[in-house]
Design a protein that fits this description.
Layout: H1 2-64, E1 84-87, E2 92-95
Antiparallel strand pairs: 1-2
Amino acid sequence: MMKNSMFLLLSLVILLPLACSKGEKTKVEIEKSMEEKIKLPDKLKAINDLKKIRDAIVIFRNLNEVNPSSLEELNLELYYQGEYIYDSNKGTVKSKSYPNT
């Protein structure tokens, strides 16, 4: 009985740190995932703004045969004013916070 107890105790001492480190890793992964999910509505709003801006640029270009000189010239209601980088030479726009969208 004593031998079994010692084996169990020794096993716990060896395996407990391994289990805790895996738990910490999982906790960090869950926190990162939650942060991304919390930011998702903001990203979707930015994507919506970008679509609205890009569509307006195409319409403006088709009507005026030039790109608008600035985004303000489009008179759009956006979720995030001042969030977008516009290149009037190319007629392209991107988000400061989400540059890959």
